[in-house]
Write a structure and sequence with these properties.
Dihydrodipicolinate Reductase, domain 2; seven-stranded parallel β-sheet; 20 strands; alpha/beta; globular; 416 residues; 2 domains
Length: 416
Amino acid sequence: MRVLMVGAGGVGDAVARLASERGFFESWIVSDYDGARASATVAGVVARRPGEARFVAAQVDASSAEAVTALATLHGATHVLNAVDPRFVMPIFEGARAAGADYLDMAMSLSTPHPDQPYSLTGVKLGDRQFAHAEEWSADGRLALVGIGVEPGLSDVFARYASDHLFSEITELGVRDGANLVVTNDAGEEIFAPSFSIWTTIEECLNPPVVFEKGRGWFTTEPFSEPETFDFPDGIGPVECVNVEHEEVLLMPRWVDATRVTFKYGLGEGFIGVLKTLHTLGLDSTVPVNVKGALVSPRDVVAACLPDPATIGPRMTGKTCAGLEVTGLGKDGAPRRVYLYHVADNQRTMAEYGSQCVVWQTALNPVVALELLAAGRWSGTGVLGPEAFDAVPFLELLAAPKPAGYGSPWGMLELG
């Protein structure tokens, strides 16, 4: 396996550090629009593992399918891993296919709200532009494994596991993510510093959330709707969660039978307030505005004014939890409710990988998936989500102690 990774930001850097510990690939090309950043990621890997020669840095324009194709072809890439924000999904997706390579991403093609009824009807849904090409990928005998980060990704694996091994009938698949992370400034004061790309965060949180119900299909609601308090494990505790647009709701119903599918994120009152203010002021817009003769995107300005998520790890404390609440009937026909989850502790990920916990948790899962593909334990063609594959090999490899596995156990709570 020869992997071309597009993107050497926080997630891409963590992916490279994780992958460097594994032996399933021949070469790993780290590419970025900023060639110096790609080189820094490779240098970081070599510093951690002296003598490591499988990693090579390259420059690429992720907005150009032709540039991705050329770089993948130059290096004979068998797999292209998209580690940049979802604005660039389609050119990387198209560039990988043109190069005859398989493709993986951690976020899917962007949505467009319904023009007339955005808070009741879907428009172009997350991933629609990719699924429109599923037959072409199948005809080529190539695989596009979409949504294989942590969210989407791990919860989708949990959904398949619950369907196959825990439940005879599923009433609801409810992704519930929360954290108790705190970021401070040099004076020790808590500051507003999102742990993931603010560009992506705005996209997810201010777009109309999508819900799935059997018999009705996909529909939308108002942002931050249906608040509920969820008690997260491992000391995180209760966090208010609200509906947010996310890929799991668009992926799970394609392969897993459930009456209802939702995604709720524990944002917190303060975070929601900031996002609402950005929206009120128009600072969430991606449409360039004229500022003293220069055309700039308001959302890009917001991103530029905030700390880079890749740099806040040393100033962050706490844990983040990604998981799936499943309700329905167990294999014995009795009512059952469980929470399948994975927790990342920032202190641990910083100590072991130099990566803050949110980007590390996102980076972990595509590396596990690539190893399963390399070993032939996962295989397929077309545009597929994680639910299309057997969950057991993934969860076993994730949890198994190093060096056989990744030493990152997942958990399950019986909630009633």
